[in-house]
Write a structure and sequence with these properties.
This protein has about 475 residues and is α/β, with parallel strands linked by helices. It is built from 15 helices and 17 strands. The strands form six sheets. It has a five-stranded parallel beta sheet with strand order 7-4-3-12-13, sandwiched between helices. The protein has a four-stranded antiparallel beta sheet with strand order 8-9-10-11. A two-stranded antiparallel ribbon has the order 1-2. Helix 12 runs antiparallel to helix 13. Bound molecules: adenosine monophosphate and zinc ion (ZN). The site of adenosine monophosphate (AMP) has 17 residues, from helix 1, strand 12 and strand 14.
Length: about 475
């Protein structure tokens, strides 16, 4: 049997509450599931913190040599204003707010979400599946849960019976009261529930008769609960055993707790081994919420002159397991350091051969930092250490370009300063040749002008004629 070479990674696992070596089910392969956005409004920068850090996690796994398959859902139905199954469907709230159909809202905000992701260099997961695409899968799963006695019908809805589980609270050691706080927004009692923690798998009755999207089901026309979608979509694409599941910390309860309950009752065995949760980014007034009306978006930051990369760096400077408070003061500092960093890197020469031996210890330091429970701030320190190192510029460039596969900060986007890696004699020679070419063109000797351009090209110098005159670049 061949051995796949992968670097050892350690991750904090919410399930065991410890940092553990990461060992996937299949050697060299990782199945990863991410809770996607509820597309009833723009993502706020808190949501985007979660997606940035999950992106770093995915890229760390790839950097360590794993073949990652990542799936994300798009919540376009079933997520009610309270995570504990009460209130109005968030999608419907969005549609009413904007006087559009639910599907129009879903498309608009889904596109907006992926635009934000692209700006932030967040890789699109291998599979992105809207919940409304998977109604037959949800129905199938609910039928089995009912058949196996894990679910019941009451008042027209199908509920999961949490009393059937030995340990419903596997993901958390908090008590019920504390956990309910995580359920967000107003928590209302539903009299159909046998147990307080039971949750809806399929709604046919809700207080909101104008629910736009409804489907036929064995229990009547209705729509799925929010939690079932992630269990079913994950099992559909990633099979019965999942390596790692991620989301923001508010997802631990009830969403992920309910996902485990459904998936493991349906499958009859343990489902997911590692749970990765990103702590919240809050503003100075407290929690960020899309329903609050005014909230911080990536576009707002852009309007104020902060590039998405500055926000990404802001996220990377803190550990994902620490709560973060947003302030423009901190963002300004990050902006300054980011711009300085990119400029410094742009000034590195592109000449020479990488010195592999010297680069090795920096590669190890980077892997050690990022592989140690995704310690992004320590990984950034390694970036600065490389810049300070006694090493050829070209080796520094090679290292930083390598680290940027994980950090995705566009570290090398700065144009090399004109003349970087070009000695003074060559510079003088280029200027002289540009003059000669100008003369040749004036004299309509285009053959000579072209010959000069080609000769410089062979030396790795590209000429461009602009309105301001001829400029040159190293290629
Ligand atoms: P939603 O669109 O509300 O379903 O949330 C999308 C993702 O953002 C989920 O993984 C949430 O757990 C996460 N999230 C929500 N609020 C925050 C926040 N303030 N900071 C970080 N992540 C958040
Ligand atoms: Zn989910």
């Amino acid at each position: 049997m061949s051995t796949i070479m992968t670097e050892q990674i350690h991750l904090y696992n919410t399930l065991t509450r410890t940092i553990e070596p990461f060992v996937p089910n299949k050697e060299g392969k990782v199945s990863m599931y991410t809770c996607g956005p509820t597309v009833y409004h723009f993502a706020h920068i808190g949501n985007l913190r979660s997606y940035v850090m999950e992106d770093v996690l995915e890229k760390t796994l790839r950097y360590a040599g794993y073949d990652v398959k990542r799936v994300m859902n798009i919540t376009d139905v079933g997520h009610l204003s309270s995570d504990a199954d009460s209130g109005e469907d968030k999608m419907l709230m969005g549609a009413k707010r904007e006087k559009k159909s639910v599907m129009e809202i879903a498309k608009f905000y889904r596109d907006a979400f992926f635009e934000d992701c692209e700006k932030l260099n967040i890789k699109t997961p291998d599979i992105v599946e809207p919940a409304t695409n998977c109604i037959p899968e949800f129905i199938h799963m609910i039928e089995k849960l009912l058949g196996d006695g894990y679910a019941y019908i009451a008042g027209g809805n199908v509920y999961f019976d949490t009393s059937k589980l030995k340990n419903y609270y596997v993901l958390s050691n908090q008590n019920e009261e504390e956990l309910m706080v995580g359920a967000r927004e107003d928590v209302e009692e539903d009299e159909n529930k046998k147990n307080k923690t039971d949750f809806v798998l399929w709604f046919t009755k809700s207080k909101f008769d104008d629910q736009e999207l409804k489907w036929e089901s064995p229990w009547g026309i209705g729509y799925p609960g929010w939690h079932i979608e992630c269990s079913a979509i994950s099992i559909k694409h990633l099979g019965e055993k999942l390596d790692i599941h991620c989301g923001g910390v508010d997802n631990i309860f009830p969403h992920h707790t309910n996902e485990i309950a459904q998936s493991e009752s349906y499958l009859g065995h343990k489902w997911c081994n590692y749970w990765f949760h990103v702590l919240h980014l809050n503003d100075q007034t407290g929690k960020m919420s899309k329903s609050k009306g005014d909230f911080l978006t990536l576009s707002l930051l852009e309007e104020k002159g902060y590039s998405p990369m500055v926000y990404r760096m802001f996220c990377l400077q803190s550990h994902y397991r620490k709560p973060l408070v947003f302030s423009y003061e901190v963002l300004n500092n990050v902006k300054q350091s980011y711009e300085k960093l990119v400029k410094k890197i742009a000034g590195l020469s592109e000449e020479g051969e990488p010195e592999e031996e010297k680069m090795k210890s920096y590669r190890e330091a980077f892997m050690h930092a990022i592989g140690n429970d995704i310690n992004t701030s320590q990984a950034l320190t390694v970036v600065y250490d490389v810049l300070k190192a006694e090493m050829d510029d070209v080796s520094k460039r090679a290292l930083l370009s390598d680290f940027d596969k994980v950090l995705s900060l566009d570290l090398l986007k700065g144009q090399p300063e004109k003349g970087a890696g070009v000695d003074d004699d060559l510079k003088e020679y280029i200027e002289q040749k540009i003059m000669e070419r100008k003369e040749a063109k004036k004299a309509k000797d285009f053959a000579k002008a072209d010959a000069i351009r080609d000769e410089l090209l062979e030396k790795g110098i590209e000429l461009k004629d602009t309105r301001e005159g001829t400029v040159w670049n190293r290629i």
